Amino acid sequence: MKVAVSVPDTIFEAAERLAKQHSVPRSQIFAEALAAYIKAHDSEAITSKLNEVYAEESSGLESSLTKAQLQAISNESW
Q1: DSSP string of 3-33?
Q2: What phi and psi values does residue 14 have, to the nearest 5 degrees?
Q3: How far is it, in rounded angstroms, from Cα 25 to Cα 22?
Q4: Quick check: helix, strand or coil at residue 78?
Q5: At what angle do helices 9-22 and 26-41 cross, to 10 degrees?
Q6: Residue spans per domain, the chain
Q7: Nearest Cα to 18, choosing from 7, 26, 10?
Q8: How far is the C-alpha of 28 from the C-alpha of 19, rounded, in Å?
Q9: Which residues of 39-74 are buried (b: 16+ CB within 10 A; e: fewer)?
Q10: 15: how many CB neighbours lie within 10 A of its CB?
Q11: Could you give the CA distance from residue 64 to residue 70 in angstroms, rounded to a whole number?
């Protein structure tokens, strides 16, 4: 799909240099940059990854730490 966007001259020039250095079309540089941005900011993907991690790892505290926390709380004045 073709799309027209406005970018600052400095970004355009940097993309031009990068495209020439890697012998790829400038549009590929912009497409890859946008794909990386979307991936990094996709909250569903981030949540999914965190769910994968916590499915394998326990998020609970060791019993000794839980006991220490409960004792500390009971000494607080609310």
Answers
A1: ------HHHHHHHHHHHHHHT--HHHHHHHH
A2: -65, -40
A3: 9
A4: coil
A5: 110
A6: 9-74
A7: 26
A8: 8
A9: eeeeeeeeeeeeeeeeeeeeeeeeeeeeeeeeeeee
A10: 17
A11: 10
pTM of the model: 0.56
Q: Does position 6 have pLDDT exceeding 90, yes or no?
A: yes
Q: Find out whether 16 and 7 touch, Cβ atoms under 8 Å.
A: no
Query: In the predicted model, is pLDDT for residue 60 greater than 80?
Result: no
pLDDT at 65 over 80: yes
d(CA 31, CA 29): 6
What's the burial of 30, exposed, middle or buried (CB within 10 Å: 0-12/13-18/19+)?
middle
Instruction: Give the model's pLDDT for residue 21.
Output: 97
Side-chain half-sphere exposure of 55, counting CA atoms within 13 A: 6
Q: Is the pLDDT of residue 34 over 80?
A: yes
How far apart, in whole angstroms, are the C-alpha atoms of residue 10 and residue 41?
23
